[in-house]
Design goal:
The complex is a heterotrimer of chains A (about 325), B (about 290) and C (about 260). Chain B has eleven helices and two strands, in the order ααααββααααααα. With about 290 residues, chain B is an all-alpha fold. Chain B has a single domain, classed as ABC transporter involved in vitamin B12 uptake, BtuC (Orthogonal Bundle). In chain B, helix 3 crosses helix 8. Classes of the chains: A mainly alpha (about 325), B mainly alpha (about 290), C alpha/beta (about 260). At the B-C interface, loops of B face loops of C.
């Protein structure tokens, strides 16, 4: 688990968790003081929403050392669940949200079994194919999904409260991320977490020690799919409208970029990566047309020069300076 | 029957293009172990560059040549700035780099060109030739001929020239090739250049039939990869057979099952091959030494 | 009672016969060593026994059960553990975390409990950490527990692998060249570790090049060359069989063996 070097001498993993979560909670509480309009709340909410998805993917890539280039597919399932459920099936949004997560878990379980037997670039392409397949289904089944033009997402009402404003979504997304981070940190300090990190380094040694590698990979794949699904549902609800792009190839690559840029295996890294990739297009609204050029450059640069990620690189740099 | 023949013709046509994309993939993969996801972009660039140069007043034959040169240059740049700099990265990292490159090129095409569909005039007119109750476009024949010529030329180059032998050596064992004095960087760069050129030509040939647009590259790359997987990664003959087979499967599925899921065929093929027959039709099973 | 038995094991890679009709029986609580020149097929045998590589022919018996077709994780659950010649350290983990993974088969929590860090998980973590610390102490690495495993010296990494394998509380431990690349001081430490392991009732099967180590700790020695069994017996037997061995291992090796024994 990559924690800032300042805290690497702490023996108790319990303290690791608090050292990370408390400042994060404080940050979440205080951040709105900087917001001068609903726009900021909205951007921040989007950052946390994507951070949730990136965190899930990080469990798969950073911990277990696998790769998924199709994870936006699960975001799509979550997003379309909260759309199709109320609109076509009369299921209340909250329930649809839970069903979406459950459906993502089931799909991940079914797809994960064969797919995770693959390694490296085969796994990469297979997951890529899966993601694009999901997007194609959403694009084609216009009767359910509104086709390529998408459809409106009905608002979320919680016991007569209509959850509409960007403000509400900021708190929902940020607190969800906090919870997701707590769960991820718990996982790191658990038998499953240690087994996953072991698998990352040597599947053979893990198996020889009794780890059911295939089962563990599947478990983390399902968990990461649920994270993505939750993020996808939030995304649909905050926007009020979704298109099949939510589960598209570009979206999946963005998620990977967030994970790698922030730092594989780093909880805070997921937030940092999401922040960069969500805020940058906002900051470059003038250059909206150049969005893909920028994304492509970011992906290439990160993978060539900054594979370690921002947070671990910072941590290492700080650690070196302290050592001097 | 006529319908069936129709599907066969269109399947073979687009299959020839997939075969060319797959051959481009294989050239690069064999020489450098890189799965070049930007391969589809080379095809897109061939067509789009020709089209826009044509709009700018350049005579089409010259525009086509220029487009191939542009694509080749971009292929070399991709190698020099993205692949060579990431020397020693693992397979997944390299794939993601090429995906980043493909997104970059697609974004650039979006800006330099536009987001609409474009076409080129077919070489010998658009009156279909009737064969057995089905219609085949003259351009399809151009596509077949073009693909065949490229394959033959490529084979001659690889098999008959010294440089080609160096490519074979590099593909077989990069370290050994270096030890006998082959500059593998030049070889790999040449493979990128060749693949880009082949892709561009394929793009120019097919645009009169399928039209082109800035985002045509992504699906083409996936389909080219499906063809490679089907034929067995690393096998040039497999790439060709895989491409044609995929084209046929796609056309038949689109015709008899569902037209809107045409693109999904390649993806299903990828998944099936990876799950059931990972070495493809012609590949060798890997023996892993522990 | 035979705890581990190889019955006619044969493995071929391409045209190379890595193991050719190899058979042996291992009795409980002894150190059983497999020796032979490089390429004799020793690691291949280990890979077959530990379930990483299926044999083309033959069977493996573990405590009377035919385990030939079992996967490594299933063998681990039955009490078979091993170390690796080429070190398979979990480099992203700390030293003690490496050993804690060795406790995996004795841990029993599910994904939900792990995600929520229920009290049961915290209790289990504590027990695992204690057992891991104990295993580290047994190989003399206790003071390096919190270090990242990737930063350790080679000799310490070899001991780390042993500690990790011990943490799983095996009945039979396969050690794949534990003294490879070690200096005489480290080798003597490994010898002591092996003796203490056997002292605790664990059967050790050893693949090793270092003749001194082999002669010093082994109860039985099985000699392989070109994948085939050459000889088997006590250290004394092997010593007196030197003439036969010399034909295959070469005079230099024979002298080295004699020197180790003398």
């Amino acid at each position: 688990m990559n924690v800032l070097a300042l805290f690497d001498r702490l023996r108790s993993p319990q303290r690791h968790r608090l050292i990370l979560l408390i400042p994060l909670a404080v940050f979440i509480l205080l951040l709105p003081l900087l917001f001068s309009s609903a726009y900021y709340y909205r951007v921040a909410a989007l950052v946390f929403i994507f951070a949730i998805a990136a965190l899930g993917l990080n469990l798969l890539m950073g911990f277990a050392g696998q790769v998924s280039l199709g994870h936006a597919g699960f975001m799509g399932i979550g997003a379309y669940a909260v759309t199709i459920g109320p609109t076509h099936l009369g299921i209340p949004p909250l329930f649809s949200f839970l069903l979406g997560a459950a459906l993502s878990a089931v799909v991940a379980f079914l797809v994960g079994r064969p797919i995770l037997r693959l390694k490296e670039h085969y796994l990469a392409v297979a997951t890529l194919g899966f993601g694009v397949l999901v997007a194609i289904v959403f694009t084609n089944e216009a009767g359910w999904t509104g086709g390529p033009d998408g459809m409106t997402v009905p608002g979320l009402t919680l016991m007569d409260w209509s959850i509409r404003g960007a403000g509400a979504w900021y708190w929902i997304a940020a607190i969800s991320f906090l919870l997701g981070a707590a769960l991820a940190l718990n996982l790191a300090d658990s038998p499953t977490g240690r087994a996953l990190r072991a698998i990352h380094d040597s599947e053979i040694a893990a198996r020889v020690l009794g780890v059911d590698v295939a089962k563990k990979k599947l478990i983390v794949f399902v968990v990461s799919a649920v994270y993505a699904s939750i993020a996808g549902s939030y995304f649909g609800l905050i926007n009020g409208y979704i298109t099949p792009d939510v589960s598209g190839f570009l979206r999946s690559i963005e998620l990977v970029a967030m994970v790698v840029l922030g730092g594989m295996g780093s909880v805070i890294g997921s937030l940092v990566g999401a922040a960069v990739l969500v805020i940058l297009p906002q900051a470059l609204t003038v250059f909206h047309d150049y969005e893909h050029i920028v994304l492509g450059l970011i992906v290439m640069s990160v993978m060539i020069f900054l594979r370690r990620g921002i947070v671990p690189s910072l941590a290492a740099a700080l650690g070196e300076r302290r050592a001097k | 029957m006529a319908e069936f023949l129709q599907f066969i013709f269109s399947g073979l046509t687009v299959g020839a293009i997939y075969a060319l994309v797959a051959i481009g993939f294989t050239l690069i993969y064999n020489a450098s172990d890189v799965v070049n996801f930007a391969q589809g972009e080379f095809v897109m660039l061939g067509g789009m560059t020709t089209v826009f140069l044509g709009y700018a007043g350049v005579p089409l034959p010259l525009a086509a040549i220029a487009a191939v040169l542009v694509s080749t240059a971009i292929g070399l740049a991709l190698y020099r700035f993205a692949i060579a700099t990431a020397a020693g990265a693992n397979a997944v990292t390299l794939i993601i780099i090429t995906i980043g490159a493909s997104i970059f090129l697609r974004g650039a095409a979006e800006v330099v060109f536009d987001k609409r569909f474009h076409t080129l005039p077919p070489l010998f007119g658009s009156d279909p030739i009737r064969v057995g109750g089905a219609a085949i476009l003259p351009q399809s024949l151009i596509v077949f001929a073009g693909a065949a010529i490229i394959v033959v030329l490529l084979w001659a180059f690889i098999d008959r020239t010294l440089f080609g032998k160096a490519v074979i050596a590099t593909s077989a064992n990069r370290i050994a090739a270096r030890l006998v004095g082959i500059d593998t960087r030049v070889i790999v760069a040449a493979c990128f250049a060749l693949s880009a050129a082949i892709g561009a030509i394929a793009g120019i040939l097919i645009t009169p039939i399928t039209l082109t647009s800035y985002n045509a590259g992504t699906l083409l790359a996936l389909k080219g990869f499906a063809a490679v997987m089907l034929g067995g990664i690393g096998s040039a003959a497999g790439a060709m057979v895989g491409g044609i087979l995929l084209g046929l499967l796609e056309a038949l599925a689109a015709g008899y099952l569902s037209a809107s899921y045409k693109d999904a065929v390649a993806l299903v093929v990828i998944l099936c091959v990876l799950f059931v027959l990972p070495q493809g039709l012609f590949g060798k099973t890997k023996v892993e030494r522990v | 009672m035979i705890v581990l038995s190889a019955e006619g094991l044969s493995v071929a890679f391409g045209g190379v016969r890595a193991a050719d009709n190899v058979s042996f029986d291992v009795e409980p609580g002894i150190v059983f060593s497999i020796i032979g020149p490089n390429g004799a097929g020793k690691t291949t045998l280990f890979n077959v026994i530990s379930g990483l590589c299926p044999p083309d022919d033959g069977r493996v018996w573990f405590y009377g059960e035919n385990v030939t077709a079992l996967a490594p994780e299933q063998l681990a659950r039955r009490g078979l553990s091993r170390t690796f010649q080429n070190l398979q350290i979990f480099s992203h983990l700390t030293v003690i975390e490496n050993v804690m993974v060795g406790r995996h088969r004795h841990e029993a929590t599910g994904i939900i409990a792990d995600l929520l860090h229920l009290p049961a998980v915290a209790r289990q973590n504590r027990r695992t950490r204690e057992a891991a610390a104990e295993a580290l102490a047994r190989v003399g690495l206790a003071d390096l527990a919190q270090r990242p495993a990737s930063g350790l010296a080679y000799g310490n990494l070899k001991r780390l692998e042993i500690a990790r394998a011990l943490a799983s509380e095996p009945k039979v431990l396969l050690l794949d060249e534990p003294a490879a690349g070690c200096n005489p001081v480290e080798r003597r430490e490994i010898e002591n570790i092996i003796r203490s392991i056997v002292g605790n009732g664990i059967t050790v099967v050893l693949v090793e090049h270092d003749m001194r180590l082999v002669m010093n700790v082994s109860n039985r020695i099985h000699v392989l060359a070109n994948g085939r069994t050459l000889a088997e017996g006590t250290a004394a037997d092997v010593r007196s069989n030197l003439a036969v061995i010399e034909a295959y291992l070469g005079v230099h090796r024979t002298q080295e063996t004699a020197g180790a024994v003398g």
